[in-house]
Amino acid sequence: MIQHDPLRHIINNIGLVESCNPIDKALVMHCSSKVNELKNLYRINWQEQIEYNSADCQTAYMIYYFPNYIETMYHTLIKVETNAINGSFKENMKICIMGGGPAPELYGFLAYLKENFPGIKKIESHFFDKNNWENWRQFCFDNFIEEYWGSGKIVYYKHHICDLCKLHETYEIESLPIIKEADLLIIQNCGLDIYTSLHDIGKYRQVFNNLIQAMKPGSIIVIIDVVVYNVISGNWFETRGNLHHIRDMAQSNYNCTVLRDVSNGNPYRYTPNIIEHPIIRDNFPFKGDVKYHALVMRKTT
Ligand SMILES: C[S@@+](CC[C@H](N)C(=O)[O-])C[C@H]1O[C@@H](n2cnc3c(N)ncnc32)[C@H](O)[C@@H]1O
Fold first, then answer.
1. 164 lines ligand 1 (CB under 6 A)
2. pLDDT band of 15, cuts 50, 70, 90
3. Structure pTM?
4. 71-278+290-299 belongs to CATH 3.40.50.150
Protein backbone atom coordinates (compact mmCIF):
# COMPACT_ATOMS: atom_id res chain seq x y z
CA MET A 1 0.00 0.00 0.00
CA ILE A 2 1.30 3.46 -0.77
CA GLN A 3 2.72 5.42 2.11
CA HIS A 4 0.06 7.03 4.28
CA ASP A 5 -0.06 9.34 7.26
CA PRO A 6 -2.80 8.51 9.76
CA LEU A 7 -0.74 9.66 12.74
CA ARG A 8 -0.64 13.33 11.79
CA HIS A 9 -4.34 13.82 12.55
CA ILE A 10 -4.36 11.52 15.58
CA ILE A 11 -1.41 13.32 17.21
CA ASN A 12 -3.10 16.69 16.66
CA ASN A 13 -6.41 15.50 18.00
CA ILE A 14 -4.88 14.16 21.20
CA GLY A 15 -2.61 17.19 21.53
CA LEU A 16 0.66 15.26 21.72
CA VAL A 17 3.68 17.56 21.32
CA GLU A 18 7.38 17.21 21.97
CA SER A 19 8.18 20.00 24.43
CA CYS A 20 9.67 20.87 27.81
CA ASN A 21 6.37 22.16 29.07
CA PRO A 22 5.38 19.94 32.04
CA ILE A 23 1.75 19.74 30.88
CA ASP A 24 2.77 18.45 27.44
CA LYS A 25 5.22 16.01 29.00
CA ALA A 26 2.63 14.73 31.44
CA LEU A 27 0.21 14.02 28.58
CA VAL A 28 2.83 12.01 26.68
CA MET A 29 3.69 10.04 29.84
CA HIS A 30 0.03 9.40 30.60
CA CYS A 31 -0.61 8.11 27.08
CA SER A 32 2.54 6.01 27.19
CA SER A 33 1.39 4.28 30.37
CA LYS A 34 -2.06 3.64 28.84
CA VAL A 35 -0.50 2.16 25.68
CA ASN A 36 1.63 -0.14 27.87
CA GLU A 37 -1.41 -1.21 29.88
CA LEU A 38 -3.27 -2.09 26.69
CA LYS A 39 -0.30 -3.98 25.23
CA ASN A 40 -0.07 -5.99 28.45
CA LEU A 41 -3.76 -6.82 28.30
CA TYR A 42 -3.27 -8.33 24.84
CA ARG A 43 0.02 -10.03 25.63
CA ILE A 44 -0.30 -11.13 29.24
CA ASN A 45 -3.81 -10.94 30.68
CA TRP A 46 -5.86 -12.44 27.90
CA GLN A 47 -8.53 -13.58 30.25
CA GLU A 48 -9.39 -10.03 31.23
CA GLN A 49 -11.97 -8.19 29.22
CA ILE A 50 -10.73 -4.89 27.91
CA GLU A 51 -12.52 -1.68 28.90
CA TYR A 52 -12.85 -0.37 25.36
CA ASN A 53 -15.41 2.19 26.48
CA SER A 54 -12.81 4.09 28.50
CA ALA A 55 -11.44 7.23 26.87
CA ASP A 56 -7.86 6.31 27.87
CA CYS A 57 -8.14 2.88 26.31
CA GLN A 58 -9.51 4.34 23.09
CA THR A 59 -6.75 6.95 22.93
CA ALA A 60 -4.11 4.26 23.46
CA TYR A 61 -5.68 2.14 20.70
CA MET A 62 -5.65 5.10 18.30
CA ILE A 63 -1.99 5.83 18.95
CA TYR A 64 -0.61 2.31 18.84
CA TYR A 65 -2.93 -0.08 16.99
CA PHE A 66 -5.24 1.85 14.67
CA PRO A 67 -2.51 3.20 12.32
CA ASN A 68 -0.82 -0.19 12.00
CA TYR A 69 -4.04 -2.13 11.34
CA ILE A 70 -5.29 0.02 8.45
CA GLU A 71 -3.39 -1.99 5.86
CA THR A 72 -4.47 -5.49 6.94
CA MET A 73 -7.67 -5.42 4.90
CA TYR A 74 -5.83 -3.99 1.90
CA HIS A 75 -3.15 -6.70 1.93
CA THR A 76 -5.79 -9.39 2.42
CA LEU A 77 -7.93 -8.34 -0.55
CA ILE A 78 -5.08 -7.56 -2.90
CA LYS A 79 -4.29 -11.29 -3.05
CA VAL A 80 -7.86 -12.20 -4.12
CA GLU A 81 -8.63 -12.39 -7.86
CA THR A 82 -10.63 -9.23 -8.63
CA ASN A 83 -12.84 -11.27 -10.97
CA ALA A 84 -13.88 -13.41 -8.03
CA ILE A 85 -15.27 -10.44 -6.14
CA ASN A 86 -16.57 -8.37 -9.03
CA GLY A 87 -20.23 -9.20 -8.53
CA SER A 88 -20.24 -8.38 -4.81
CA PHE A 89 -18.27 -5.13 -4.96
CA LYS A 90 -20.54 -2.66 -6.65
CA GLU A 91 -21.95 0.85 -6.50
CA ASN A 92 -24.01 1.37 -3.31
CA MET A 93 -22.71 -1.85 -1.84
CA LYS A 94 -23.67 -2.45 1.75
CA ILE A 95 -20.87 -3.42 4.14
CA CYS A 96 -20.99 -4.51 7.78
CA ILE A 97 -17.99 -4.03 10.04
CA MET A 98 -18.28 -6.20 13.13
CA GLY A 99 -16.22 -5.32 16.21
CA GLY A 100 -14.65 -2.52 14.21
CA GLY A 101 -13.96 -0.08 17.06
CA PRO A 102 -12.56 2.98 15.28
CA ALA A 103 -12.57 0.82 12.13
CA PRO A 104 -9.07 0.90 10.61
CA GLU A 105 -10.32 -1.88 8.29
CA LEU A 106 -12.62 0.63 6.57
CA TYR A 107 -9.67 2.72 5.37
CA GLY A 108 -7.69 -0.28 4.13
CA PHE A 109 -10.82 -1.33 2.28
CA LEU A 110 -11.26 2.14 0.76
CA ALA A 111 -7.61 2.21 -0.35
CA TYR A 112 -8.22 -1.18 -1.99
CA LEU A 113 -11.37 0.10 -3.76
CA LYS A 114 -9.55 3.18 -4.97
CA GLU A 115 -6.97 1.04 -6.76
CA ASN A 116 -9.11 -1.86 -7.90
CA PHE A 117 -12.70 -0.63 -8.25
CA PRO A 118 -12.34 3.05 -9.16
CA GLY A 119 -15.89 3.13 -10.54
CA ILE A 120 -17.42 2.68 -7.09
CA LYS A 121 -18.28 6.04 -5.54
CA LYS A 122 -20.76 5.27 -2.78
CA ILE A 123 -20.99 2.65 -0.07
CA GLU A 124 -23.34 2.13 2.84
CA SER A 125 -21.53 0.99 5.97
CA HIS A 126 -22.84 -0.38 9.25
CA PHE A 127 -20.70 -0.65 12.36
CA PHE A 128 -21.60 -3.21 15.01
CA ASP A 129 -19.69 -3.02 18.23
CA LYS A 130 -20.35 -3.80 21.87
CA ASN A 131 -18.65 -0.57 22.91
CA ASN A 132 -19.19 3.04 22.01
CA TRP A 133 -16.49 4.28 19.67
CA GLU A 134 -18.61 6.93 17.99
CA ASN A 135 -16.36 9.91 18.74
CA TRP A 136 -13.20 8.39 17.35
CA ARG A 137 -15.09 6.77 14.49
CA GLN A 138 -16.56 10.13 13.55
CA PHE A 139 -13.12 11.72 13.79
CA CYS A 140 -11.82 9.06 11.38
CA PHE A 141 -14.70 9.55 8.93
CA ASP A 142 -14.02 13.29 8.91
CA ASN A 143 -10.29 12.96 8.36
CA PHE A 144 -9.66 9.74 6.48
CA ILE A 145 -12.43 8.99 3.97
CA GLU A 146 -11.14 11.47 1.43
CA GLU A 147 -7.51 10.70 2.25
CA TYR A 148 -7.86 6.97 1.59
CA TRP A 149 -10.58 6.93 -1.06
CA GLY A 150 -10.34 10.31 -2.81
CA SER A 151 -12.69 13.25 -3.20
CA GLY A 152 -16.28 12.99 -4.34
CA LYS A 153 -16.75 9.60 -2.68
CA ILE A 154 -19.51 9.01 -0.15
CA VAL A 155 -19.65 6.65 2.80
CA TYR A 156 -23.07 6.50 4.44
CA TYR A 157 -22.70 5.12 7.92
CA LYS A 158 -24.68 3.94 10.88
CA HIS A 159 -23.47 2.86 14.31
CA HIS A 160 -25.09 -0.05 16.13
CA ILE A 161 -24.29 -1.12 19.67
CA CYS A 162 -24.40 -4.90 19.53
CA ASP A 163 -22.87 -7.83 21.42
CA LEU A 164 -21.74 -10.41 18.88
CA CYS A 165 -21.39 -13.04 21.60
CA LYS A 166 -25.16 -13.28 21.75
CA LEU A 167 -24.99 -14.85 18.31
CA HIS A 168 -23.76 -18.10 19.80
CA GLU A 169 -27.24 -18.93 21.03
CA THR A 170 -29.70 -16.66 19.27
CA TYR A 171 -30.35 -14.98 15.97
CA GLU A 172 -32.36 -12.27 17.71
CA ILE A 173 -29.82 -9.51 17.57
CA GLU A 174 -30.50 -6.13 16.08
CA SER A 175 -27.80 -6.54 13.48
CA LEU A 176 -29.21 -9.59 11.78
CA PRO A 177 -31.61 -8.00 9.27
CA ILE A 178 -28.79 -5.73 8.12
CA ILE A 179 -26.26 -8.58 7.92
CA LYS A 180 -28.73 -10.47 5.76
CA GLU A 181 -28.65 -7.67 3.19
CA ALA A 182 -24.91 -6.97 3.27
CA ASP A 183 -22.61 -7.55 0.29
CA LEU A 184 -19.53 -7.65 2.51
CA LEU A 185 -18.95 -8.55 6.16
CA ILE A 186 -15.63 -7.72 7.80
CA ILE A 187 -14.63 -8.99 11.19
CA GLN A 188 -11.09 -7.94 11.99
CA ASN A 189 -9.25 -8.45 15.27
CA CYS A 190 -12.35 -9.27 17.25
CA GLY A 191 -11.84 -13.04 17.61
CA LEU A 192 -9.80 -12.86 20.80
CA ASP A 193 -12.35 -10.52 22.42
CA ILE A 194 -15.22 -12.84 21.54
CA TYR A 195 -13.29 -15.83 22.83
CA THR A 196 -12.36 -14.16 26.14
CA SER A 197 -16.00 -13.21 26.69
CA LEU A 198 -17.37 -16.68 25.92
CA HIS A 199 -14.52 -18.80 27.34
CA ASP A 200 -15.68 -21.63 25.13
CA ILE A 201 -14.32 -22.56 21.73
CA GLY A 202 -17.57 -24.22 20.66
CA LYS A 203 -19.60 -21.09 21.38
CA TYR A 204 -16.96 -18.95 19.70
CA ARG A 205 -17.27 -21.04 16.53
CA GLN A 206 -21.06 -20.91 16.72
CA VAL A 207 -20.91 -17.10 16.54
CA PHE A 208 -19.16 -17.38 13.18
CA ASN A 209 -21.43 -20.19 12.02
CA ASN A 210 -24.50 -18.07 12.72
CA LEU A 211 -23.00 -15.03 11.04
CA ILE A 212 -22.31 -17.06 7.90
CA GLN A 213 -25.76 -18.61 8.04
CA ALA A 214 -27.28 -15.10 8.01
CA MET A 215 -25.30 -13.96 4.94
CA LYS A 216 -27.10 -13.70 1.62
CA PRO A 217 -25.92 -15.69 -1.41
CA GLY A 218 -23.20 -13.83 -3.30
CA SER A 219 -21.96 -11.94 -0.25
CA ILE A 220 -18.40 -12.07 1.00
CA ILE A 221 -16.97 -12.45 4.49
CA VAL A 222 -13.46 -11.39 5.46
CA ILE A 223 -12.18 -12.68 8.80
CA ILE A 224 -8.84 -11.36 9.99
CA ASP A 225 -7.04 -11.81 13.27
CA VAL A 226 -3.57 -10.66 14.15
CA VAL A 227 -1.38 -13.24 15.79
CA VAL A 228 -1.41 -12.91 19.58
CA TYR A 229 1.22 -14.45 21.81
CA ASN A 230 0.94 -14.64 25.57
CA VAL A 231 4.41 -13.83 26.86
CA ILE A 232 3.77 -15.33 30.30
CA SER A 233 2.14 -18.65 29.44
CA GLY A 234 4.01 -19.02 26.16
CA ASN A 235 0.70 -19.79 24.41
CA TRP A 236 -0.51 -18.54 21.08
CA PHE A 237 -4.17 -17.70 20.67
CA GLU A 238 -4.90 -20.34 18.08
CA THR A 239 -5.95 -17.96 15.31
CA ARG A 240 -4.88 -20.16 12.44
CA GLY A 241 -6.60 -23.30 13.77
CA ASN A 242 -9.77 -21.35 14.54
CA LEU A 243 -9.92 -19.96 11.01
CA HIS A 244 -9.30 -23.42 9.52
CA HIS A 245 -12.20 -24.70 11.57
CA ILE A 246 -14.49 -21.82 10.54
CA ARG A 247 -13.58 -22.42 6.88
CA ASP A 248 -14.32 -26.17 7.08
CA MET A 249 -17.57 -25.57 8.95
CA ALA A 250 -18.69 -22.93 6.41
CA GLN A 251 -17.95 -25.26 3.53
CA SER A 252 -19.78 -28.21 5.01
CA ASN A 253 -22.79 -26.34 6.48
CA TYR A 254 -23.26 -23.79 3.70
CA ASN A 255 -22.13 -23.44 0.15
CA CYS A 256 -19.04 -21.26 0.56
CA THR A 257 -16.16 -20.73 -1.85
CA VAL A 258 -12.79 -19.84 -0.42
CA LEU A 259 -11.35 -16.78 -2.17
CA ARG A 260 -8.30 -16.46 0.03
CA ASP A 261 -7.35 -19.32 2.24
CA VAL A 262 -5.84 -19.29 5.70
CA SER A 263 -2.12 -19.93 5.68
CA ASN A 264 -1.10 -23.49 6.55
CA GLY A 265 2.18 -22.27 7.92
CA ASN A 266 3.47 -18.89 9.00
CA PRO A 267 1.05 -15.99 9.27
CA TYR A 268 0.88 -13.38 6.52
CA ARG A 269 2.82 -10.24 7.39
CA TYR A 270 3.54 -6.68 6.31
CA THR A 271 5.51 -3.70 7.52
CA PRO A 272 3.09 -0.77 7.91
CA ASN A 273 3.96 1.84 5.32
CA ILE A 274 3.15 4.84 7.48
CA ILE A 275 4.94 8.14 7.80
CA GLU A 276 7.00 8.27 10.93
CA HIS A 277 6.49 10.99 13.53
CA PRO A 278 9.29 11.53 16.08
CA ILE A 279 6.92 11.85 19.02
CA ILE A 280 5.46 8.42 18.23
CA ARG A 281 8.79 6.81 17.33
CA ASP A 282 10.37 8.02 20.57
CA ASN A 283 7.51 7.32 22.96
CA PHE A 284 5.30 4.62 21.44
CA PRO A 285 7.57 2.56 19.17
CA PHE A 286 5.84 -0.16 17.17
CA LYS A 287 8.34 -2.97 16.84
CA GLY A 288 8.30 -5.27 13.86
CA ASP A 289 5.72 -6.32 11.33
CA VAL A 290 2.00 -6.93 11.64
CA LYS A 291 1.46 -10.72 11.50
CA TYR A 292 -2.03 -11.95 10.83
CA HIS A 293 -4.21 -14.78 9.59
CA ALA A 294 -6.98 -14.10 7.11
CA LEU A 295 -9.82 -15.96 5.44
CA VAL A 296 -11.99 -14.63 2.60
CA MET A 297 -15.06 -16.58 1.50
CA ARG A 298 -18.09 -16.07 -0.69
CA LYS A 299 -21.41 -17.63 0.22
CA THR A 300 -22.51 -19.14 -3.05
CA THR A 301 -26.08 -20.25 -2.39
C1 LIG B 1 -9.08 -5.30 19.15
S2 LIG B 1 -10.41 -4.25 18.76
C3 LIG B 1 -10.40 -4.35 17.00
C4 LIG B 1 -10.84 -3.09 16.35
C5 LIG B 1 -10.64 -3.10 14.82
N6 LIG B 1 -11.46 -4.11 14.21
C7 LIG B 1 -9.19 -3.28 14.46
O8 LIG B 1 -8.85 -4.19 13.70
O9 LIG B 1 -8.37 -2.50 14.94
C10 LIG B 1 -11.78 -5.25 19.18
C11 LIG B 1 -13.11 -4.56 18.97
O12 LIG B 1 -14.16 -5.52 19.16
C13 LIG B 1 -15.16 -4.96 19.98
N14 LIG B 1 -15.81 -6.07 20.67
C15 LIG B 1 -15.29 -6.83 21.65
N16 LIG B 1 -16.16 -7.79 22.03
C17 LIG B 1 -17.26 -7.62 21.26
C18 LIG B 1 -18.53 -8.27 21.18
N19 LIG B 1 -18.81 -9.29 21.97
N20 LIG B 1 -19.43 -7.82 20.29
C21 LIG B 1 -19.15 -6.75 19.49
N22 LIG B 1 -17.97 -6.11 19.53
C23 LIG B 1 -17.04 -6.52 20.39
C24 LIG B 1 -14.44 -3.99 20.87
O25 LIG B 1 -15.30 -2.98 21.36
C26 LIG B 1 -13.39 -3.44 19.94
O27 LIG B 1 -13.89 -2.34 19.25
1. yes
2. very high
3. 0.96
4. yes
